[in-house]
Design goal:
Layout: H1 6-81
């Protein structure tokens, strides 16, 4: 998604130190870590929810297919009996 090379990382680090100062750097890094950790948890929850929805749809779709197969078998039996 983001393509950071070494040069961009160094430039970003220098800008952060200049803007916030070395005393505030640990606080800012902890806050960023907390934020990205929470985003990771949220994305994992969303991913598992979507996967469960897909699985439910597949199961219901399979049940529908089984019902259709039963109906086809019943119809073929009726045709064979006549």
């Amino acid at each position: 998604m983001f393509d950071f090379g070494f040069n961009e990382f160094v430039l970003l680090s220098i800008l952060i130190v200049i803007l916030f100062g070395p005393k505030e750097l640990p606080v800012i890094l902890r806050a960023l870590h907390r934020f990205f950790s929470q985003m990771w948890v949220y994305s994992k929850e969303i991913r598992t929810y979507i996967e469960s929805l897909v699985n439910e749809a597949d199961i219901s779709n399979q049940n529908d297919l089984k019902e259709i197969e039963k109906e086809i078998n019943n119809i073929t039996k009726e045709i064979e009996d006549k």
